């Protein structure tokens, strides 16, 4: 794993050892950020199931203003902290060792970019989407990026959220949701 471009370009990132996490491949990450390239600068980001923190770190490297990293596993959060430090992003990030639902329930921030990549079989992707829509923490024109198996169907969300395109990368797909401007 490495940072693809931006201020931390080429920096190698540490992955969590073992088989408990499934890091996003560089190919999938590059596809995601090619789609998002004009929607990152100056935004506040949330990497909700952070794992190694690579998605939030890539966003910071490409000009995101700030990123909150959330993971309930202490070992994962330690990896995120080391990766953030190695890239020099300590002043533009915060790490939260909490369950995603607890974090979202207490969330008072608005995000322009949210990354969701929980363990596939957990059902947490749908639960996180429901929580995010219910508490409405995405700013106008904000984007939610969801990674899932290619054959997995994600739900529609209530207005002002709109399910956008799905992009397939082999056995994986990422789906974009946007929060539209209210009339």
Quick overview of this protein structure:
By secondary structure, the protein is an alpha/beta fold. The protein has helices spanning 26-36, 54-61, 74-87, 100-105, 124-135, and strands spanning 44-47, 66-70, 93-96, 111-116, 138-149, 161-169, 172-179.
Describe this structure in words.
The protein is an alpha/beta fold and 183 residues long. The chain has a single domain, classed as Vaccinia Virus protein VP39 (Rossmann fold). It has five helices and seven strands, in the order αβαβαβαβαβββ. The chain has a seven-stranded mixed beta sheet with strand order 3-2-1-4-5-7-6, with helices on both faces. It starts with 25 loop residues before the first helix and ends with a strand. The relative contact order is 0.16. The model has no long low-confidence stretch (mean pLDDT 93).
Provide the fold topology:
Elements: H1 26-36, E1 44-47, H2 54-61, E2 66-70, H3 74-87, E3 93-96, H4 100-105, E4 111-116, H5 124-135, E5 138-149, E6 161-169, E7 172-179
Parallel strand pairs: 1-2, 1-4, 2-3, 4-5
Antiparallel strand pairs: 5-7, 6-7
* Physical arrangement of strands within the biggest beta sheet: 3-2-1-4-5-7-6
What fraction of the residues are assigned to beta strands by DSSP? 25-35%
**Helix-residue proportion:** 25-40%
What is the CATH level 1 assignment? Alpha Beta
**Gyration radius over CA:** 15 Å
User: Whole-number average pLDDT?
Assistant: 93
Structural class from helices and strands? alpha/beta
Number of helices: 5
Order of helices and strands: HEHEHEHEHEEE
CATH topology: Rossmann fold
CATH superfamily caption = Vaccinia Virus protein VP39
Q: How is the main sheet built? A: 7 strands, mixed
| Amino-to-carboxy terminus distance | 42 Å
Could you tell me the number of beta strands?
7
Shape: globular
The tally of domains stands at: 1
User: From the coordinates shown, what is the CATH architecture?
Assistant: 3-Layer(aba) Sandwich
| Poorly predicted runs of 5 or more residues | none
